[in-house]
Records
---
Amino acid sequence: MEPVLAYIDQHRDRFVRELQDWVKIPSISSDPEHKADLVKNAEHLAAELRRLGADRVEIWPTEGHPAVFAEWKHAPGGPTLLIYGHHDVQPVDPLDLWVTPPFEPAIREKRLWGRGVVDDKGQVHIHVKAIEAFVKTVGKLPVNLKLIVEGEEEVGSEHLEGLLRDKAKDLEADFVCVSDTSMFGRGIPSLCVGLRGLLYLEVRVDGPSTDLHSGSFGGGVANPVNALARMIARLHDDSGQVLVPGFYDKVRPLSAVERQEIAGLPFDEKEWLDSTGAPAAVGEAGYSTLERIWARPTLDCCGITGGFGGAGAKTIIPAFATAKVSCRLVPDQEPEVLEKLVGDYLKKVAPVGVRVTVTYLHGGRPYLAPTDHPVYDVAKRAFSKAFGAPTVFIREGGSIPFVRTIADATGKPCLLMGFGQPDENSHAPNEWLDLENYHLGIKSAVYLYEELGKLPLPKP
Ligand code: BES
Ligand code: MN
Ligand code: MN
């Protein structure tokens, strides 16, 4: 291992420069204007993997954006690790809040700043450089390795299930590792053992076929904006409990041990609240902030539009109003079930005189890791060796649809070994990557491959 680790130290700055080159490609998956950039982005990664002598490097087109696949078969008869990441990034607006432009990645304060530096290009790159360190020193990897890097994660991984089905044989593995989450805090290696799922709906309320004069018609027909506001207001009671019948039916309660583990983490509630800028922490009675974010479901209105919003006054009854409504789901809530429950409820509480349409935009299933599997101890050891500190188990409130999909399809455990920071500004202006985490992340990956290569395989 010494030459591999020495190589990582030696080439530390060049690795960052190469990551910068990749971050310069604006791979915003939600924006049709950037469609060609996602192809360019995938090709950029594929070219780098080809230089690392992979046995196979392929770009897998989808009806949306392409994924990149690569494979190294260096350990005949040994275990196979499948690594997942995504190469698409979030939009960048509001652009004027960025200190340096999002696609001109800059180094300040031992951080790399730019869109996608940590979510998720930097974390994919950690694995690319771990592979390079083995290939360029000892000449081979200690484990069979497969890499799948998708291009639609930030828009709901619409074509991923189909891809996993079509390519099931190519993606067979003994363990899965995803690096797309954050550490609990500075210098605390953190394995994420739970993710929330997602259900994202659009609600449209239609009234008259066109905006009407509110003097001539107001009081005589229903107002869609008023109606939608009343519907949103009926999603929760005054204490914040969701009022949709059946919403909590499948929610798995936290065990005493799980609550104890969460309570034992070094969480500074005041610091966390300050980082949000919100005046107070608010949530479901009977649960701590971390429990609320990690293990309890939510139902939120993410945006609402309708009627007149321009300068001055305009006296109308608007023709329609829309809202984006999303749920963060926890085990064992499933998006299909919640879609029906929430959709039916919204229609039921709609006032008379409007038409309601609910459209499914996207979803993802929640995940809980089988932490009694030996691979979690291996990962803890590898992570701790690199960072020189004990590894903690955490959960995340966010979602990565791939994780449950691959876990269900293969029955194999999925390690979530992430190298972000809680205040990394992912999805926001001034996203940053801690360059020490990037460097130690490469070493964590190297230790992980080494240790996984030594694990005995279960007898078939
Ligand atoms: N990397 C995130 C997932 C994540 C979120 C990890 C928060 C750690 C903390 C991922 O790229 C993401 O943003 N996921 C989306 C999924 C959605 C678009 C289906 C999310 O959680 O909103
Ligand atoms: Mn991500
Ligand atoms: Mn993201």
---
Amino acid sequence: MKQILVLHTGGTIAMKENPSTGSVSPDAKNPLTDAPIPLPENVHLITENIFNLPSPHITPEHMLKIKKRIQEAYQNGIDSVVITHGTDTLEETAYFLDLTIGNWLPIVLTGAMRSSNELGSDGLYNFVSAIRVAASPDAKDQGVLVVMNDEIHAARYVTKTHTTNVATFRTPSIGPIGMINKNNIIFLQKVLHSQYTDISSASGFIPILKAYAGMRGELLEGLAHLSLDGLVIEALGAGNLPPENIAPLQKLLDAQIPIVLVSRCFNGIAEAVYDYRGGGSELQKMGVIFSPNINSQKVRIKLLIANNLQLKKDELVDFMQQ
Ligand code: ASP
């Protein structure tokens, strides 16, 4: 018998629509609790309502609590984990777990775009799909997975791309790593082994700043007055900034604040290509770290983890560039 731990954390999958106003809000009782769930053979669910939160209320401390609960359950012999979660920050929790729990067991996150009593509600379907994936022998060694709308995505690369469409989760550049069919779960790609590092705290003040045409230096100057533990910048194109930002950026670097740069483009990666004032080459020479393959919200999670590992400068650069 496969023992699957189900952790419900809240989100639309646990919400209901008010038929007279159309607004959606949390329900005291998780609607999945009484739902008829067609289980694959030889699967037993152990269900816990660890939180009942909309995912904009989820913090790194909540992620840490989920991580600790999974580690404890793993010591007690659990085979896989399914987590239901609001879709807004699902990718951040998924990536946090990807970095802090090794490839010991399949961990699958899922959610819903339509609440439990809405027409075409996708919650129960996604939940059953996630259980099927978590029970699949092929789900092991693929890192943390996100299952929605008949697709399997790697936590490291997946992102929410649409405010309401049920096909919201996408993986830019490489696509889903697997698919869910009526009778079969099929993995199409093997995920490269992710980094694994354990932490016992998740504190730090690490904002994300998005660059734009005409961005002047005031925002970076203002940030120098706050006690930052790090900064993530979504830069332009291949990794460039408007030139007025160079002087205040240097001040932050002089104050030993780690600054990690990604591109604001949906596809592709940031690299030191352009050699002009504010170009990627100058930023890299100044000591800005270029993150090769994850989006800004995930870089923020990674930098937060690095902050709690108290890495030395060169270790931090290596960690962020992997
Ligand atoms: N705002 C909701 C949340 O993230 C959306 C969802 O669950 O999909 O909790």
---
Amino acid sequence: MSTGLVWDELYMWHDTGTSAWVIPAGLTVQPLAHIESAEGKRRIKNLVEVSGLLEHLTLLKPRAATQEEILRAHTREYVDRIKRESDALGGDAGDLTPFGHGSYEIALLSAGGCITAVDAVLDGKVDNAYALVRPPGHHAERDSGKGFCIFANVSIAVHHARQVRGLKRVAVVDWDVHHGNGTEHAFYSDSSVLTISIHQDNNFPPASGAITDTGAGAGEGYNINIPLPAGSGVGAYVATFEQVVVPALRNFEPELILIASGLDASAMDPLASMMMTSDGYRQLTRVMLDAAAEICGGRLIACHEGGYSPAYVPYCGLAIIEELAGVRTGVEDPLLGLLAMMGGQSLQPHQQAVIEAAAKLAAGLKARAAR
Ligand code: 9RB
Ligand code: ZN
């Protein structure tokens, strides 16, 4: 196996300023740091390096996305505004998504990094890839930023795979704990892109990601939301992938699979209330690798999204990238024993009820494919 790692130090220089995590600082809110900081991502890269895993990876240097590529997913007015504000002192992309001077270029490099990963995999330069990009992208809408996302990295990579590389069907599996609203909206009426989001029920964005939102027009049936109850652990996630995600992928037969890889479903994350562990992410990666091998020649790309426990995300990231590369460094997750023994890790009946409802949507794709 050969696995690509997209990384650029400039990703870490995207400046989200001082808030108190997600709350704007003010007279009664003492400034802390914005929760979407470089720290967690830099610590993933550092652990990949210190563990020795980096020596087994192919480092992929990202390029900036072009205007044409960005405009496939965003309005010119929005892109021009981000550039103008970034050229000055920075601004807010929308909905408390602050950015600093130069973040426009970094956001172009983030979207471009996902395109770089797509090209490397489709050209056979690597078997699969992890794009450790920043800022994230899955909440970004056509004309606005949202939830720390400026440009829609994954959507832009999908457009590239479809329009430039000529793929007929692409699937996106979003395992970030928040709903992938931007990706959902980008392809809501499009039957050539299957979008699946597994998220904590009604966490962020508010009132987004209902199981009843299944697509519209020609895209009806090609959006699957799996809103898992708060408290879901490894058992619920593995069951979701085995009972919903893999059957949906089998029925859809994509030529390429992208994972929107947020690590914020971990038990240590402050922006959600799920119970995933590094070993849980390793298992999900295994399931996705097997599905990709069976369905699309192993073509699998993970694009980084959220994850806000700087102490814990490195172990989740390491587990995923180890599994992608088929390498075990032997570095142990120091929290795994504790988290694995916590109550609630096994699949619960109220979680299975949601999974069963979503499994019906996955099965529905078979009838659509036959038409
Ligand atoms: C608050 C607001 C947020 C914003 C983003 C996330 C998660 C992002 C992510 C969670 C909560 C707004 C506190 C807007 O990781 N996506 O993958 N909260 N945002 N207004 N207020 C008062
Ligand atoms: Zn998230």
